[in-house]
Amino acid sequence: MHGSHRAQPQHPRRSITMPTWARAALSHPVFTGVSQHHLAELISELTDPWIAAHQGALLIRRGHQRRRAAGAGPHHRLVFCDRMLVTLVSLRFQLPHHALAVLYGVDRSTITRAVHEIRPLLARRGFAVPGMPGVRLRTLADVFAYAAAAGIELRLDGTETQVRRPRANRPGRRAFVSGKKQNTIKATTICDGAGRTLWVGAVRPGRMHDQTAIKTEGIGELFCQHRTVTATVDSGYQGLAKAFGDQVHAPPRKPPKDAAAEEMARYHQARKQQSSRRICVEHANAEYKQWRPLQRYTGRRDSYAETHLAIAGLISDRAARR
User: Fold this and answer.
1) Are residues 169 and 252 located together in one domain of the fold?
2) What is the bridge-based pairing of β-strands 296-297 and 153-163?
3) Is 1 within the bounds of a domain?
4) CA-CA distance, 312 to 189, in Å (whole number)?
5) Which domain holds residue 180?
6) Are 320 and 130 in contact (CB under 8 A)?
7) 12 falls in which pLDDT band (50, 70, 90)?
8) Residue 197 near residue 291, CB atoms below 8 Å
9) Which of 34, 60, 99, 134 is 20 to 30 A distant from 143 in Cα terms?
10) What is the distance between the alpha carbons of residues 254 and 250, in angstroms, rounded to a whole number?
11) 3-state SS string over 135-193?
12) What is the pLDDT of residue 18?
């Protein structure tokens, strides 16, 4: 009959869905830098901490406990696995958040919010211990306790990453200038004899000396507490080698120019042997440089430490399986 209106069927509320092709493509190890198995482990490990942090933030914002039933209210534009994916891709390639937003059909702020939620969780995970699944090293004291118990020799070295220079007349414009005449931030890496990352920290401005940076973490006191722990370092840590001669092994000092040929030969041989023992930490630092943010960081300097620790933790997971 003309003029009659057919009743429209009532559909239940549907959850927001994202393009499945974007998730399938970005979950490939080429984009995330981790294997599919590793990705699944990360999602399983960090789901509960993310939910707890999210609910805690909502509680602070509301000022009281929730009054609606669980599941009510607006749905997330990105589910947790998609938040993990965009964070890993951002860490791997430093891809602009707007580009990831186009892939998922969301606003740029949604991607930025997701990265700011997941990146701290990755940074706080700590570092994997070879042969000990579930055990993580989070502090320098943990590393020394593990080295003393396992009887391993540590390798120390610093690594620098170029960062954006502050604008003219802004504070800190010269504070991050290193000896390379670049604005950099440095971090200290500790690994074992196989080049497996055990700890990364002491993130300091590039102009600070390597030895000074690690001393601010209390490494001197730890060497005093753990007399059986030894470490191989480069010439930048000669002060530590002088203070702890039985524990810290630095390259030998170069003889004077008028030294005998035999003395120079012994020096080159000793330096070559010491470099062979220390080269594994150089390889560990080279693994970080495969991730774009640690080649040249274009983000805010106050988030660099979090980014470096998140990447180093992911690399330690892979290295611990070697």
Assistant:
1) yes
2) parallel
3) no
4) 9
5) 127-320
6) yes
7) very low
8) no
9) 34
10) 12
11) CEECCHHHHHHHHHHHCCEEEEEEEEEEECCCCCCCCCCCCCECCCCCEEEEEEEEECC
12) 56
